[in-house]
Each structure stands twice: as C-alpha cells, then as structure tokens.
C-alpha cells in the first residue's frame, strides 16, 4: 500500500520487492532455519545506502526519518525477508547515536555503520528485571571521568554479529535517586573490550539472528562512550524504544501481508468438493478479517512514525501500532495456514515457520500486556496498574 507517500518514500517501500528478486523468502528461510545471518542480503542493503536511512548525511547517512525506516522494513517484510538486525542496529542504535552520541560516535562509528562495515545491537533486558526496566542491575560505576561496567544482559539479538552494543546501565543505585527514572546512562560499548563474554540463548524461532546473554565484568568505559547525559539516560531511551515498536509494527504488517498473499493464492487455486476452497466464506472471511487488521495496523504504524519524525509524543501510537500489528500478523499467518490445510505445515510452503516469529512479536520487544497498560493509563486516563 502506498497511501500518501512521496516518490522517494514509495521507492523505499518498493525496494524490498527489488531485493527479493535476488534474495527471496526461500533464501531468507534457508538462513533462518540455520540461524545463519544472510550476509549477502545485508551487504546489498548497505551498498544500496539503506542502513543509514535515519543518519544525517554529514555522518554518512541518507538524512531521512522513522517513516522511511519503517517503510524499508515493511517493504522487505511484505516479501518475507525481514531482518531483526535492521531493528536493533540502523533503527534503535544508529539514529540514537546521530541524535545523542559523542563526536567519536558520529564521526567514526556512524559512517562505518552506514557503510555496513560495523554493526550495532541493543541491550536493555536483564534476567532479574524482565519487562520492568527500572529494576535493571547492570552498573557502570563512576571512577573520575571513567566507568566500570558490570552486570549482564540477556536475549540480545545479534550480539555475535555486532561490533558495538548500545547498553542501558545504572550509574546511580536505585535507592539514591530522587525519581525512579533517574540514574540511568546509555553507553556504546565496544564488544571486543576486555571483560565481555557471551553465551548463546537457544531460541526455537526460525530467524537468521541469534540471541545472546552478555556478561560484563568491570569493562572500562570512557567519556567518549557515553550516549546522552550521565544519569539522564531514561529521558532519551524512548528515542530508541518507540522506533523499535514502530519498526516491529512495520515488520508485522509486512509479514501479515506476505502470509495473506500466499493464503489467498493457494485458496484460489486449490479445489476440493468441486470448487476452489477460496470460494467458501469459511476460508475467505478469516483472511479478509486479517487483511483489515493488517491494513489498519499499517496506518497506525505510519501515524506513529509521522509523529516521531515531527517531534510529537509518539508513545501512544507506537504502542497501538505494535500491539495492533503483532495481533494482526498472528491472525494473518493463522488464517493463511488454515487455508493451506496440511500443505501449510510443509517445509516447501514455509508458512508455519513464520508463526513463531510473529508470535514472538506479541511478547517482545514489549509484551502485549504492557502495551495495553500504557494505552489504558496514558491514552484512556485510567490508574496505573504496574
Ligand atoms: C527472540 C528474542 C529477541 C530479543 N531481542 C532483544 C534485544 O535485542 N535486546 C533486548 O534488550 N532484549 C531483547 N529481547 C528481550 C525481550 O524484549 C523480553 O523478553 C520482553 O521484553 C519480555 O520480557 P521478559 O522476557 O523478561 O518477560 P517478563 O517481564 O518476565 O514478563 C513475562 C510475561 O508476564 C506478563 N507481564 C509482565 N509484566 C506484566 C504487567 N505489568 N502486566 C501484565 N502482564 C505482565 C507478560 O505477558 C509477559 O509476557 C528479546 C527476546 C527474544 C525472545
């Protein structure tokens, strides 16, 4: 769908289709099954100049915004070739560094990342804190103008592929701050630094990127590694987390469309009881309903991106987009699967293997319940539930 797009935005949205002529869903799925990163696909995206979509031109990027980033993702997912590394790197980390990073980040790291020579991942989740990010325990202990980072982060996507990780840490203990959101600082951590180890978390989702637990043991950080203000990291955190929700919304809408495209095509040609199964309302309506849900979620995703690009509070729309899109994608994959009958579960069709990914996106990066709590509290004005 190219409702209300500029020519450039339409080209970005359609880029996924061009990519898929060479790197199609079969290529993506073959990598996803092995948890192998599709390096040629990523290199192509880098060479075509799309990694730095949200990075200003002076630092090697295209100087565009969240809208274009989400269009890139949605266009790729429309063809069944989404990449989580585009969420955690170019969207969550590069844009953040461009807005809040040091001269070192902007002049050294961003141009290399825009070229695809280095990658970024993003780490907030911890085993003990879970969704309650306020309770994270990873500490960057100040020592003069340096910091010593100790703690662990888990489920970190692409920590093996990334050279740097944007890490959310405490620089003041929980019980020493006036407001519970004070005392956080963001750091761009060189994953080759002394004191960092990682362990694979085996996740049973066919997806190219793997997840890792990162262990930090007195990792030395300097002023050049700080992103934003010391102790005020929370105030800029949502410049990463809202874009993440919007990107995931875009990914879900694309994957929903991809599944429905397969489902509708199959239901139109598969004949049992003397007519195509797609002629039965019992087959048609679930896919039609899912189509409505996907297209509606896509509009909300565009609204959230537009709000973000225009400096408006985007939290409400970003949560609604992520919630609606994940639910729509699950509905779409399920409806397309049902239409396929037994064929939906074959490796040749590759449809069932999309289900774990869209189902993940109901739970991560922010779970369905927290999206609804945000909407209930912030948009409907009801009391806080957590
Ligand atoms: C494949 C994968 C990739 C990931 N990639 C990254 C990454 O790159 N970087 C990163 O930092 N993290 C990453 N994560 C972590 C992910 O963001 C978290 O798993 C997610 O936010 C949920 O946190 P949790 O697992 O600790 O669940 P918990 O916080 O333990 O919650 C468990 C369940 O309890 C319910 N729940 C929790 N709180 C409430 C509440 N207040 N009200 C109602 N219900 C509630 C929800 O249903 C939730 O699903 C990834 C996770 C996975 C599985």
Explain what you see.
There is one protein chain. The chain is of the alpha+beta class and 386 residues long. The chain folds into 3 domains: 7-118, Orthogonal Bundle (Butyryl-Coa Dehydrogenase, subunit A, domain 1), CATH 1.10.540.10; 121-234, Beta Barrel (Butyryl-CoA Dehydrogenase, subunit A, domain 2); 235-379, Butyryl-CoA Dehydrogenase, subunit A, domain 3 (Up-down Bundle). 49% of the residues lie in helices and 15% in strands. The protein has helices at residues 7-22, 25-34, 39-47, 66-78, 84-100, 103-115, 234-269, 281-309, 315-340, 355-363, 368-379, and strands at 120-123, 139-143, 146-157, 164-170, 184-190, 196-201, 211-221, 226-227, 271-272, 275-276. The longest helix has 36 residues, at 234-269. Flavin-adenine dinucleotide is lined by residues 88, 121-125, 130-131, 155-157, 203, 205, 211, 360, 363-367, 369-370, 373, 386. Residues 88, 121-125, 130-131, 155-157, 203, 205, 211, 360, 363-367, 369-370, 373, 386 line the site of flavin-adenine dinucleotide.
Name the features.
single chain, 386 residues, alpha+beta, Butyryl-Coa Dehydrogenase, subunit A, domain 1, Butyryl-CoA Dehydrogenase, subunit A, domain 2, Butyryl-CoA Dehydrogenase, subunit A, domain 3, 3 domains, four-stranded mixed beta sheet, four-stranded antiparallel beta sheet, 11 helices, 49% helix, globular, binds flavin-adenine dinucleotide
| Chain-averaged pLDDT | 97
The tally of helices reads: 11
Describe the largest sheet: 4 strands, mixed
What hetero molecules are bound to the protein chains?
flavin-adenine dinucleotide
SSE topology string: HHHHHHEEEEEEEEHEEHHHH
Q: What structural class do you assign from the helix and strand content?
A: alpha+beta
How far apart are the termini? Answer: 38 Å
CATH fold name of the largest domain? Butyryl-CoA Dehydrogenase, subunit A, domain 3
Strand order of the largest sheet: 1-4-5-8
* Proportion of strand residues: 15-25%
CATH superfamily descriptor of the largest domain: Butyryl-CoA Dehydrogenase, subunit A, domain 3
Task: Summarize the amount of helix as a percent range.
Answer: 40-55%
Which consecutive residue ranges, at least 5 long each, have pLDDT under 50?
Answer: none
């Amino acid at each position: 769908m190219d409702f209300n797009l500029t020519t450039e935005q339409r080209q970005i949205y359609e880029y996924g289709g061009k990519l898929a002529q060479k790197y199609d869903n079969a290529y993506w799925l073959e990598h996803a099954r092995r948890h192998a990163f599709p390096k040629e696909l990523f290199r192509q995206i880098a060479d075509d100049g799309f990694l730095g979509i949200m990075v200003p031109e002076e630092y090697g990027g295209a100087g565009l915004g969240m809208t274009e980033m989400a269009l890139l993702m949605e266009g790729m997912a429309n063809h069944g070739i989404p990449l989580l590394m585009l969420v955690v790197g170019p969207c969550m980390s590069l844009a953040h560094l461009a807005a809040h990073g040091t001269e070192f980040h902007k002049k050294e790291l961003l141009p290399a990342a825009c070229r695809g020579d280095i990658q970024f991942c993003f780490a907030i989740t911890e085993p003990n804190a879970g969704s309650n990010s306020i309770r994270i325990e990873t500490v960057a202990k100040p020592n003069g103008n340096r910091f010593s980072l100790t703690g662990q982060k888990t489920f970190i996507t692409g920590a093996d592929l990334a050279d740097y990780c944007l890490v959310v840490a405490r620089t003041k203990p929980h019980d020493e701050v006036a407001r519970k959101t004070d005392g956080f600082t963001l750091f761009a951590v060189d994953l080759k630094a002394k004191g960092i180890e990682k362990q694979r978390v085996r996740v049973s989702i066919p997806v190219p990127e793997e997840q890792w637990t990162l262990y930090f043991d007195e990792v030395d950080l300097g002023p050049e590694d700080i992103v934003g203000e010391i102790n005020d990291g929370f105030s800029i955190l949502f410049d990463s987390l809202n874009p993440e929700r919007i990107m995931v919304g875009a990914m879900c809408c694309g994957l929903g469309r991809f599944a429905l495209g397969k489902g509708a095509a199959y239901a139109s040609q598969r004949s049992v009881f003397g007519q195509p199964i797609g002629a039965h309302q019992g087959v048609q309506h679930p896919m039609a309903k899912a189509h409505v849900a996907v297209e509606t979620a896509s509009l909300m995703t565009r609204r959230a991106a537009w709000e973000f690009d225009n400096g408006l509070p985007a939290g409400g729309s970003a949560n609604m987009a992520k919630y609606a899109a994940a639910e729509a994608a699950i509905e779409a994959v399920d409806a397309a699967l049902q239409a396929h009958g037994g064929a939906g579960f074959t490796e040749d069709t590759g449809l069932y293997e999309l289900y774990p990914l869209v189902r993940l996106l109901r739970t991560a990066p922010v779970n369905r319940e927290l999206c609804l709590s945000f909407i209930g509290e912030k948009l409907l004005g009801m009391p806080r539930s957590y």
